Inverse folding.
């Protein structure tokens, strides 16, 4: 187990200054303790497996160039990699293609990168209410490839699983199948869809251990798993990094083999698109 | 009297069977959950990665990590399960979901459906609709019989871009219910809303049915 030393005020201020944090939570102290901590192999020799970075900016260092294809997790605003998207925006890279189920909303998620015109193309199933998106799409500044939601998830999964293409019934007889190869299996028609291999995968998860084994929380898992697997480099932001050995190996949603770099992204201000509640009668 | 939104949803709920796994679309289809017949248990699937959708949460139980496919906050049940989007659509595409209830803009007499885009208007995307109509065992469309302009929506051939070809099994409108045995059979008029005549339905339908 890792012990977190009770931090002094000056230590906390120093930590905040070094990582550009406006607020400090226990997870930052935990991550700081793990950061740069030598990782040892079972035989006691030093391992180079250190995936923990202090900030999103540091985690993205050396990975960003114009024109990248980025797979991003999230459904609506649920489970989006907020810190990593912010850091991509701040880096100023442009002509990006995003494979992402949605495009955020005005000034949230990928919406922030649309506002700064860093996105050239979206591969999405639903783009919802997003004024700036609409303006750029209608003016032809932004290219959009509409892809059925299940086909998009499977294209990511397939890409990450070494499958360059697959046949599906989804979209047969619609504009989605136009220009694509079709084939009959057992008397039914299927359309060939291509797997997606992204330059980068940006993922938001709940917890990770120090080796990058990841668990998600409730419906925030969504596209994060398929997106993670299809990235040549996968960056994960989590709410907490826990000591290796404290996650049940039977309950890992994304094994560490898929994860190259990670950060603690707290504090999160998780946005809700439609807050719906029901009146409960008092017991 | 034609059926109202709730009555259409209640009529669709009559198609639920005990043990069914069901996906409900946004709008009137969502209301179907309020009319599950007594004595049967159905499990609702949300394509963003959940089986066993519970009711809207109380104010203090709202969780941003727990939403349905309409991005509304929901709650979980004792038998709920979470999974990723690829697994979610594997169960949809793979035919493991028994029933989906969707809205529609146009349905053709051959069971084609158009419900995702209107040329010239802002396209928002098909979301999971194309996957659902292609993969779920039985597809019910709930829609108004005519458009706001009074034009029939159950027509010989769709004029709008398709969501799926030859995929619809049942149509429930505010006036009537149409059903077909299989995807090679014509739709049959099987039920009328109270006070609605077969003649009125005929007048407001350009599709061929029996």
């Amino acid at each position: 187990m890792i012990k977190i030393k009770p931090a002094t005020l000056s230590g906390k201020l120093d930590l905040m200054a070094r990582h550009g944090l406006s607020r400090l939570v226990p997870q930052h102290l935990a991550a700081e303790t793990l950061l740069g901590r030598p990782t040892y192999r079972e035989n006691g020799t030093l391992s180079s497996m250190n995936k923990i970075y202090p900030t999103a900016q540091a985690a993205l260092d050396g990975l960003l160039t114009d024109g990248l294809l980025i797979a991003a997790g999230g459904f609506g605003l649920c489970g989006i990699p907020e810190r990593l998207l912010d850091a991509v925006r701040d880096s100023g890279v442009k002509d990006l293609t995003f494979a992402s189920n949605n495009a955020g909303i005005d000034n949230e998620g990928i919406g922030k990168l649309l506002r700064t015109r860093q996105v050239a193309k979206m591969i999405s199933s639903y783009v919802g209410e997003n004024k700036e998106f609409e303006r750029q799409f209608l003016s032809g500044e932004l290219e959009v490839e509409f892809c059925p939601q299940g086909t998009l998830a499977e294209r990511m999964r397939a890409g990450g699983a070494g499958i360059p293409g697959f046949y599906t019934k989804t979209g047969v007889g619609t504009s989605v199948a136009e220009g694509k190869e079709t084939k009959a299996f057992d008397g039914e028609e299927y359309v060939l869809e291509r797997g997606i291999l992204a330059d980068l995968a940006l993922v938001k998860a709940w917890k990770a251990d120090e080796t990058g084994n990841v668990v998600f929380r409730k419906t925030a898992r969504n596209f994060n798993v398929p997106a993670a697997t299809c990235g040549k480099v996968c960056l994960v932001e989590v709410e907490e990094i826990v000591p290796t050995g404290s996650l049940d190996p039977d309950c890992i949603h994304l094994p560490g083999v898929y994860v190259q770099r990670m950060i603690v992204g707290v504090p999160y201000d998780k946005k809700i698109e439609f807050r719906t509640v029901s009146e409960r009668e008092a017991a | 009297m034609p059926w109202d939104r709730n009555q259409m949803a209640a009529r669709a709920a009559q198609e639920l069977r005990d043990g069914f796994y069901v996906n409900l679309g946004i709008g009137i289809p969502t209301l179907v959950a309020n009319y599950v017949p007594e004595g049967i248990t159905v499990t609702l699937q949300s394509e963003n990665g959940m089986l066993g959708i519970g009711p809207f949460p109380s104010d203090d139980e709202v969780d941003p990590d727990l939403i349905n496919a309409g991005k509304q906050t929901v709650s979980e049940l004792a038998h709920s399960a979470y999974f990723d989007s690829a697994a979610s659509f594997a169960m949809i595409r793979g035919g493991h979901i028994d029933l989906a209830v969707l809205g529609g803009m146009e349905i053709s007499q051959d069971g084609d459906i158009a419900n995702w885009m209107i040329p010239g208007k802002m396209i928002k995307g098909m979301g999971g609709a194309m996957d659902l109509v292609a993969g779920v065992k039985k597809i019910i469309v709930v829609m108004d019989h005519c458009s706001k302009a009074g034009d029939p929506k159950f027509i010989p051939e769709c004029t709008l871009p398709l969501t799926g070809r030859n995929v619809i099994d049942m149509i429930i409108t505010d006036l009537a219910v149409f059903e077909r045995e299989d995807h090679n059979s014509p739709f049959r008029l099987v039920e009328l809303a109270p006070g609605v005549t077969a003649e009125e339905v005929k007048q407001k339908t350009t599709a061929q049915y029996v």
Remarks:
- The domain at 5-203 of chain B is CATH 3.40.1080.10 (Glutaconate Coenzyme A-transferase).
- Chain B touches chain A through 52 residues (CB under 8 Å).
